[in-house]
Amino acid sequence: MSAPTVDPVPLASSSGGRVSGKAWKQPKTATQRSHLQAGVKTKKWEDRMEREKAAKAIKKLEIELKEEKQAEIQRRREVTLERKKAAEEKAHLAEMMAKMSAKKALRLKRRAGRTKKING
């Protein structure tokens, strides 16, 4: 018994040669300008350069504003630090004054006692 002969189905040809018989596959096409980015798509170089110039100006302004903000924050930190140092110095001086005044009072008390003994 011989197997029945089946005539081969001719394949559809394309410019690229063999074509897939799968219905869900889209035929590939050349890259179209619709796939390109907006900056590349425009035909005028001057337009693109103008857009880049505007973008650079905006970026420069943003950087400038950020630097001003950072400078203000730094200035506030320095003012706060100076106030803190001044308060610490004031507290230290008050403590030293209290200590010295206690010593002076003790010294005067001893001296007064001495005079009392002599005069008393």
From TrEMBL:
GO biological process: any one? rRNA processing
The family database entries (Pfam families) matched by this protein are listed as: Cgr1 (PF03879)
What are the coiled-coil residue ranges?
Answer: 51-90
Instruction: Say where the protein is mainly found.
Output: nucleus
Keywords, A to Z, come to: Coiled coil, Nucleus, Ribosome biogenesis, rRNA processing
Where is this gene product found? Nucleus, Nucleolus
What's in the GO CC field?
Answer: nucleolus
Question: Where is the segment annotated Disordered?
Answer: 1-48
Signal peptide span: none
Q: What job does the chain carry out?
A: Involved in nucleolar integrity and required for processing of the pre-rRNA for the 60S ribosome subunit.
Entry's family note:
Belongs to the CGR1 family.
Query: Per its record, how is this protein called by name?
Result: rRNA-processing protein
Q: Which organism is it from?
A: Sistotremastrum niveocremeum HHB9708
